[in-house]
Here is the input.
Amino acid sequence: MKVTRSKNRLYCINLKMGTPICLSSKLDEEAWLWHARLGHLNFDALKSMTHKKLVQGIPRISHASQICDACLLGKHIRAPFPNQAKFKSLKPLDLIYGDLCGPISPPTHSARQLTAPYLPQQNGVVERRNRTMLSTTRSIMKAMLLPQNFWGEAVRHTIYVLNRIPTKALKDATPFEALKGTKPDLRHLKVFGCIAYAKVPSNHLTKLDDISVKMVYLGVEEGSKAYRLFDPITKRICISRDVKFLEKDSWNWKDYMSEVGGEEPEWIDFTIDYNLNETSQSETIPVTTEDLTGNDDQGYQDPITPTSPFTPVTPPTYAY
Here is the structure.
């Protein structure tokens, strides 16, 4: 570049300022989005599963390790204890761990191994997995400020996610791949509790009706290629595949709670004209510590049992 000197011995350069461009903002935003979609999975595990290509349908994540408020509220733990060696099975379903379950049908073909009462340390695999499940459940509910009635739906979604993310028990594989031999596809996964708009079939509409309904995303419906949604207005579950998501937005539950009297909503059952494939509700009988042999301490409370006074209720279901 050549610049001439002016009469006052100054060199004037006319430069055109470039337009500032942020190159990392979109990548960071996408990393936080997948962090929320995968049940607030820590960023180290998120980077590892994308770099090793353990799953499909997710971009390469290189975001620095951070935590959010929902992670602290739902996953804050004590300092770790030394690890102990445990037996590892050699094939799927070779050894099954269980906690607080009733009779198993059909009967197993091997002997049962029972643990002593009040000694969760003897069943460390289940206790540790339960802790992961409950901490993830708390985080995804806190992130979207969901009422505690939804903890059953949150646990269901958490199990779906945990089966598709890495675990220390498996090297470079997810539980889904270890069982089925194929990598899980996560392209359909959305942030639990986000706003979802389900399209209403044309045969249920008049010319001026809204063609979509605002609902809340509760995960993927098992056994179908569709989403499981909740309508807070009608208090009903909707199964639909034609859905658009606003993953950064959540339902204004405070206004909703004030409309129902400031208390947790109570599910009600009623019929509407476009009700399809409705399923009947069945009463859930909870398993208590009194059902266990040798458990005579009436004041005992399992440390991993959810302390919420609200019983999860499955609302009626219809399909779009």
